[in-house]
């Protein structure tokens, strides 16, 4: 059943069958309207056109018309066009009975798969024919899987329609819950579909599964197989009081029948924002539109306040579990990298490990599922009370916004709400952005000090057990920390060499020292002195020899707008345009201006306005190495 929250797995089953019936198809234009919505024009035989509308994490179905195409195509939509525009749709499939739609596309000698995820926050992922990820709208590492370039997209899972009765019965009776809950969770059918199957079978949904005999399980199994088969063979879509269904429910009266499930979904879900705005301009006066926007904002503010307060109560209600998580992970992070911690959690079968949904190494936080309405983000290096305080601050911020909106409405002061611009927004500021920083090709954070104070801060406050300490083999070089294990230590070493005093010497290459955090100390030998920002490395040193010095500075447009800088092999794949630097003669500020001019010349004129907020001299200068530089000619 599709509710306003989104489509279910069985809805995707019906939609897969509906789309597959239209084959053969070819990929036409691909549009991205904002960070969540996409449109794909599918061309059929005899000049037929089918318009697929996608809201990641919510829905994917055909519509009668797509919103107006954005004037400036996004970087991710351009990337998809490059690989699959004009390609032939070979198959449209579903991953087991999950909320995952997979479109297989052949273009020339190659085959690609566009994976549309409709669960949680959703995603669009492009892989090769072997499910190796080429790119994704949102790249992220989770506890149970990695959605990053080069990782393999897992197709493991159980399709209940393919189970034998014996396997079905074995799994059902192994569970402590009642029949409807086991169908919903273990068989991944969701609540409404599971209730429907119980009603069709004539078996009480509250029957404890472990005590069910063949007399109860056999009808449930046959009803499940028959229901899933009907979804695949043809449906009778309806809308009722609860939502849009591919089949009429025996539990509720349908309000309206539709010729296709897409038509039912289009009628059930709100219109796309772009269409709703156009309609509002026609029907509503300017004052009415502003009033409606203010009312909608108040609802959103109230929801944010309520959610923040509920989460703070959840933390206190699970005080022991949250405190245990903070204590254990804080101790572990002093000895292990966050990648190792995520790996250990993935293989663990303890209740404590199972409640950790995802790990976020960049800000040392984890997301917990405590069995409540909301998931909880906990920052490991902060106390439980400080974590609760974060949610109180969120509630305080939105209360202030709510009060401001109410005052404006009472005083009849008109504050037009600017429509959100299409395309990605500016990269959100992170704690490590004030240091020198980059991410390696395999997504590991590398940070370095800009001065002696930052060197001290990095070692004392941010160095953890699983990190690698890097230092160019020259006096006064920056401290560089590699935050976890990486297969591209060469990129981190080049970063450390390039952002050191070796750059100013004009040398083309230099050596870099690597050490474990346990080897780094502030304590000097007897009679010696360790300067502010410097450290002693004890024990065996690992030398990375003849590391070439070169950096790239470029403009990233997806998933957010930013100027990035660092090792060329790590930076250039993330950027639409970039410039390389080598040790040379031009002073830093002059180099920043030259790089800025080169980047602006390379950026398409249509993107200039979008990038104005991020592409400026200060942003570029932050990634220029200390000392003279020359631009490398293309």
UniProtKB/TrEMBL annotation:
Coiled coil: 284-311
UniProt-listed InterPro entries: NFACT_RNA-bd, RQC_Subunit_NEMF
Keywords, alphabetical: Coiled coil
Residue ranges occupied by any NFACT RNA-binding domain in the UniProt entry: 435-539
A family per Pfam: NFACT_N
Superkingdom field: Archaea
Chain ranges passing through the membrane: none
Cross-referenced NCBIfam families: RqcH_arch (NF041120)
Protein name per its UniProtKB record: Ribosome rescue protein RqcH
């Amino acid at each position: 059943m599709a509710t306003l929250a989104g489509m279910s797995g069985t809805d995707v089953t019906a939609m897969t069958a509906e789309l597959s019936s239209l084959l053969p198809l070819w990929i036409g234009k691909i549009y991205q309207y904002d960070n969540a919505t996409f449109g794909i024009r599918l061309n059929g035989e005899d000049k037929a056109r089918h318009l697929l509308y996608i809201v990641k994490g919510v829905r994917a179905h055909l519509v009668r018309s797509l919103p107006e195409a954005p004037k400036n195509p996004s970087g991710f939509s351009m990337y998809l066009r490059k690989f699959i525009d004009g390609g032939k749709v070979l198959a449209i499939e579903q991953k087991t009975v999950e909320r995952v739609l997979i479109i297989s596309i052949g273009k020339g000698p190659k085959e690609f798969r566009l994976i549309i995820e409709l669960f949680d926050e959703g995603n669009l992922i492009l892989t090769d024919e072997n499910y190796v990820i080429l790119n994704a709208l949102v790249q992220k590492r989770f506890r149970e899987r990695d959605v990053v370039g080069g990782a393999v997209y897992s197709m493991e899972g159980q399709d209940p329609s393919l189970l034998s009765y014996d396997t079905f019965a074995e799994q059902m009776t192994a569970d402590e819950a009642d029949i409807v809950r086991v169908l919903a969770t273990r068989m991944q059918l969701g609540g409404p579909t599971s209730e429907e199957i119980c009603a069709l079978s004539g078996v009480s949904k509250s029957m404890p599964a472990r005590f069910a005999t063949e007399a109860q399980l056999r009808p449930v199994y046959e009803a499940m197989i028959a229901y899933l088969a009907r979804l695949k063979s043809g449906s009778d879509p309806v809308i009722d009081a609860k939502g849009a269904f591919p089949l009429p429910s025996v539990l509720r009266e349908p309000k309206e029948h539709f010729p296709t499930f897409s038509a039912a979904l289009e009628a059930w879900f709100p219109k796309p924002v772009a269409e709703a705005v156009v309609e509002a301009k026609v029907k509503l006066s300017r004052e009415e539109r502003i009033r409606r926007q203010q009312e909608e904002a108040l609802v959103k503010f109230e929801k944010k306040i309520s959610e923040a307060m509920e989460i703070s109560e959840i933390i206190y209600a699970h005080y022991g579990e949250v405190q245990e998580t903070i204590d254990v992970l804080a101790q572990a992070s002093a000895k292990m990298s966050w990648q190792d911690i995520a790996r250990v959690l993935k293989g663990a079968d303890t209740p404590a490990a199972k409640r950790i949904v995802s790990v976020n190494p960049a800000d040392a936080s984890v997301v917990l599922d405590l069995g409540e309405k909301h998931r909880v983000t906990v920052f490991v290096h902060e106390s439980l009370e400080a974590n609760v305080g974060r949610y109180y601050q969120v509630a305080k911020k939105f209360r202030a916004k709510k009060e401001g909106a109410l005052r404006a409405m009472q005083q009849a002061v008109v504050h037009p709400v600017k429509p959100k611009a299409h395309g990605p927004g500016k990269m959100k500021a992170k704690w490590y952005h004030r240091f020198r920083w980059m991410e390696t090709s395999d997504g590991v954070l590398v940070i370095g000090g800009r001065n002696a104070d930052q060197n001290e801060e990095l070692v004392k406050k941010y160095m953890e057990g699983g990190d690698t300490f890097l230092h160019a083999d020259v006096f006064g070089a920056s401290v560089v920390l590699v935050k976890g294990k990486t297969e591209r230590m060469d990129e981190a070493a080049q970063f450390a060499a390039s952002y050191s005093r070796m750059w100013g010497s004009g040398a083309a290459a230099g050596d870099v020292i690597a050490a474990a955090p346990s080897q780094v100390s502030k304590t000097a030998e007897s009679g010696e002195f360790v300067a502010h920002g410097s450290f002693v490395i004890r024990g065996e040193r690992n030398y990375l020899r003849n590391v070439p010095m070169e950096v790239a500075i470029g403009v990233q447009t997806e998933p957010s707008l930013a100027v990035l800088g660092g090792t060329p092999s790590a930076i250039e794949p993330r950027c639409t345009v970039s410039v390389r630097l080598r040790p040379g003669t031009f002073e830093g500020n002059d180099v920043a201006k030259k790089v800025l001019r080169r980047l602006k010349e390379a950026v398409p004129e249509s993107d200039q306005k979008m990038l104005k907020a991020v592409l400026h001299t200060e942003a570029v200068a932050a990634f220029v190495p200390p000392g003279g530089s020359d631009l490398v000619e293309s």
